[in-house]
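Reviewers of the previous submission asked for a worked example of the structure-prediction workflow described in the proposal, so we include one complete record here. The input consisted solely of the amino acid sequence. No template or homolog information was supplied to the procedure at any stage.
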Amino acid sequence: MILSVCLLFFSIQCAPKIDWIRTLPSDLPRDTKISLGFYIRPTEKKSPYNSKEFHLYWKEEIQLKPNNQFVKTWSEWKVYKDHSEFHQKEGTGTFEKSGEWVLLKTNSISEIKCKSTQIDKTIPKGKDWFSLFPCSPQTSKTNRIIDHRLLYYFDGKSLFPLQFESGYHEADFGIAWESDLPYTRSSLFEKAKLKYGKKEFQPHVYNHVKLD
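From that input alone, the workflow returned the following C-alpha cells.
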C-alpha cells in the first residue's frame, strides 16, 4: 500500500504541468502580426508501400481568416479493394496571438463520413476533397458544439502545436511535454520543437503556403 502511494506521488510530481497550453501568457499584450491564409501540415501516405489492397491519404490544414476567425480541416481518404471511404472534420472558431504564441479556440465541429463503390488509387487532386469524393446526395454533415483550445508556437512562418493533435484527437506527448518552462524558448523547448517539427511521420507543424 505504501509503495503504491509513493509511486502515485512520484508520477504526479514527475508528470509535466502543461495546463498553460490552453491559454495565452497573461503578461504579454495581444497583437495581430501573423500572415493570414493557409498553414498546411506535411503528410506522408500511411498505407503500406506498394499495397494493392489498401491506400490511405490524409491531410490537415489551418486557414487563418480576417477578424481572427479560423477553419481547421482534417481529411482522410481510404481506398480498399472493392470500395472507398471518406472522413472529414472541420473545426471553426477564433484565434488570439501574443508575440510568438497563437491560441486556437474551436467552438464548433462539422463532420462527414461516406462510402462509395468507386475506386481511384491515385492521390486526390484538388484542395476540396469533399467535393471530389462521390458521396451520395443524401449524405449530410453533423454539427456539434465544442470548447477546444490549443496553443501553437509561431516562428514567423509556421505554427507548431504544443501537444500532438490530429483530427481533434490528442495524445499525451509533444513539444510542451518535453519542455521545462511555460512560454519559454529554453534549450529543451528548442530541442523538442526541432524533434517534432522534423518528424518523418506526422510532423507537428503547419507551414504557411501561398496558393494559386
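The first strand starts at residue 37 and ends at 40. We consider this example representative of the routine output the project will generate in years two and three.
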